[in-house]
TrEMBL record:
Record domain Metallo-beta-lactamase: where: 41-226
Organism field: Sphingopyxis terrae subsp. ummariensis
Protein name per the record: Glyoxylase, beta-lactamase superfamily II
Pfam families registered for this protein in UniProt: Lactamase_B (PF00753), WHD_BLACT (PF17778)
Length: 309
């Protein structure tokens, strides 16, 4: 997770609801749901400049976002803004990278308004009694077609390929725009913050493998669901891999001092952390511990973790 400001962790220059052109085939509509977990808000990407378009990560509908968000910062009016942006074009597909509630709920009202199918990630609904750092899962997500790794869909002048990237969630997909070398990375890779990996569905080993998978690709630019575009993808992914390995080493150093519980590790590892993000930090530490446990490096007694001799 990235550092955020206590006062306002998002720029004033970006206006929700505006449609901004990023390249000939790519536009963005920002949802009005800024928060410490969504940065400026969810970015809905529109692909296509001809007769039809694809909509990636349609976003929220106004039903609430992350725990602790104010009730007026939840995406109200976002569907209307998307429909204004695609006026005069048909919608060929509504694509979701994953099913957190800041990404997929608007898929159904957009389908009802346009007749377009919902295509992309598999449905997923989990209960999790741990402290959530991001949005809960969308229980109403119902795709018409689930894409697997490497499957493609096409429209007028564009073709999109699914790239499976589990880790942040088990059903996470990125989408590659074949014509331009752009990759829509959802919550898997963002420039403003590292992605929260929250068990039981979030899996650190899968997340690291997915980062390595993207590092081996030759994408030109990343368009994440939150935060600015990434102009140097390999450099960022290399840094993210290094950051996660450094966190793992921090955890092992903490456990060298003796058995520890997660809150105590967070206190020592995340100096000066915004208190609102303590739960997120704990989930990521837990994800690392579960990965280390699967590799035989650590063990636990109830909630207390220790090194394996």
């Amino acid at each position: 997770m990235g550092g955020v400001s206590e006062e306002k962790p998002w720029p004033d220059t970006i206006r929700a609801g505006d449609c901004e052109q990023h390249e000939p085939l790519v536009r963005r509509v920002l949802a009005p749901n800024p928060s410490p977990y969504t940065f400026t808000g969810t970015q809905t990407w529109i692909v296509g400049a001809g007769r039809d378009v694809a909509i990636i990560d349609p976003g929220p509908t106004g039903s609430g976002m992350s725990i602790g968000d104010p009730p007026d910062a939840n995406g109200a009016g976002h569907v209307d803004a998307i429909l204004r942006a695609v006026e005069g074009q048909s919608v060929a597909a509504i694509l979701c990278t994953h099913t957190h509630r800041d990404h997929s709920p608007a898929a159904m009202p957009l389908k009802q308004a346009t007749g377009a199918p919902i295509i992309g990630c598999a449905p997923l609904a989990l209960s999790d009694d741990g402290p959530r750092a991001d949005s809960a899962f969308d229980p109403d997500y119902a795709p018409d077609r689930v894409l697997t790794d490497g499957e493609r869909i096409a429209g007028d002048g564009w073709m999109i390929e699914a790239v499976a990237t589990p880790g942040h969630t088990s059903n996470h997909l990125c989408y590659a725009l074949m014509e331009s070398g752009a990759l829509f990375t959802g919550d898997h890779v963002m420039a403003w913050s590292t992605s929260v990996v929250s068990p039981p569905d979030g899996d650190m080993a899968a997340y690291m493998a997915s980062l390595a998978k993207l590092y081996d690709r030759d994408d030109r630019v990343y368009y994440p669901a939150h935060g600015p575009a990434v102009a140097k993808p390999k450099q960022l992914v290399r840094g993210m891999l290094g950051h996660r390995r450094q966190r793992e080493r921090q955890i092992l150093r903490e456990l060298e001092k003796g058995p520890r519980v997660v809150p105590d590790m967070v206190k020592h590892m995340y100096k000066g952390l915004d208190p609102r993000l303590t739960g997120a930090a704990g989930r990521s530490v837990l994800a690392h511990l579960l990965d280390l446990e699967s590799r035989g490096r650590v063990a636990r007694d109830a909630d207390c973790w220790r090194l394996v001799a």
